Amino acid sequence: MKLYSRLSRIGFLKQKYSTKFLFISFLGIHVPLIGLILFISFSSFRELNPGEVLFWTLGLTLGSTILTLWVQHSLIIPVIASSKALDDYLNKKELPRLPVHFEDEVGVLMRDLNEAIYTLDAHIDEKKDLVNMLSHDLRAPMSNILMLTELIRDDKQKKEMGEYLKMIDLSVQTQLGIVGTILQLMRAELQQNEFVEGVNIRLLIEKVISQFKTSLSLKNIRLEIDVPADLEATLNPYSIELLIYNLLSNAVKFSKPDGLITIKAGKNDDVLDIEVVDEGSGFDPKDAEALFEPFSRKSAKGTLGEGSIGIGLYFSRKIVQSHSGTITAGSNGRGLGSTFTVHIPAEQNKD
C-alpha cells in the first residue's frame, strides 16, 4: 500500500488508477533502452562486441520486467486489501479500516466498500435490537391475555367480567400495534421511494384515521381535522400514509382518556406542512431528539399501559428524510401534550 500511496501523491497520477499502471509500464519499457544508452556512452573508450551488447540488453530487459511486475503487483495491493476486508467482515465480523482519502477509482472503491460494510453492520445491529425487543414486547400482551382468560374462567363474579374484557381488548390492541409496526417496516424497506404521484392529503389522512376507530373509542378521544379538502401534493403515497399512521399512533398512545387530538395540514411556498397535536403525556423538551432514536425507551408506556418497540418515530424521521424534509417534536413539559411538525417539499421528483 506504501507504493500506491506514494504514487497517489504525484499530481498527474492522483485521479486515475489506470494512469499509474501506464506510467509504470512506460518506465519499465524504457529502462532497458536508457540503461543500454548509458552503458554504451560510458563504454566509448573501448570497442563493444555484439555479445556484450546482447548480454546487457537481455539483462536490463529482464531486470526491468521483474521490477515492473513487482511494482504492478504492489499497485494491486489496495484491491487485495478490499477483498480481504470484505472476507474478514463476512467470516469474522471484523469491521474494515480501509483508507478512504484516495481520489482514483480504487480509492472510491475502498471508500464505498468501507461505507457499505459499516451501513450493513448498523442494519444488522438494528435487527438484533428488534429481535431483543420482540422477545419481550410480543410475549407480554399474550401472557396478559392468557392470564385474564384464566381469571374469567375461574371468576364467579360476573360484574368484574367487563373489566377483564377491557384489559384483554387493550392487550390485543397492543399486540396488533406491534405487529402492524413490524409489517410497516418490512413493507417500507421493500418499497422505499419507488414512485411518486398526485395525492389528496385530506383523503389520505381520513384513510389513516379509519384504522384508529377502536383505539379512539377505547379512550373516548376526540379527533379534529384541520385540512383543506382540495390539498394536493406529489409524493410517495405509501410512505406518507405510514408517516401519518405513526404520528397518529403515537398521539393516541400518549393521549389521556377524553382527550383531544388535532391534525393540521397545509401548503406554504410549495412546502407541505403536517402537524399532529395532542393533549397527552408530553415530554421533557430536552428529550425531543432522543424520541427519534431507534428503540428509544423514552415514555415507552402509553396512558393505558400500551406497549411499543420504539421505532415508530425513528421510522417517521427516515420517511421524512427520504422526502428531503424535516420533522420536529415539541412539548412544554411532562403532562402538557406534544406537537409533531413535518415539513416536506410538496412536489417530489418523479423518477
TrEMBL record:
Annotated compartments: Membrane
Location (main, coarse): membrane
Domain spans labelled Histidine kinase: 133-348
Gene Ontology, cellular component aspect: membrane
Alphabetized UniProt keyword annotations: Kinase, Membrane, Phosphoprotein, Transferase, Transmembrane, Transmembrane helix
Coiled coil start-end: none
InterPro entries: HAMP_dom (IPR003660), HATPase_C_sf (IPR036890), HATPase_dom (IPR003594), His_kinase_dom (IPR005467), HisK_dim/P_dom (IPR003661), HisK_dim/P_sf (IPR036097), Sig_transdc_His_kin-like_C (IPR004358)
Superkingdom as given in the UniProt entry: Bacteria
Enzymatic reactions: ATP + protein L-histidine = ADP + protein N-phospho-L-histidine
GO MF entry, a single one: phosphorelay sensor kinase activity
Segments forming domain HAMP: 97-125
EC number: 2.7.13.3
Identification of the protein by name: histidine kinase
Organism, scientific name: Hufsiella arboris
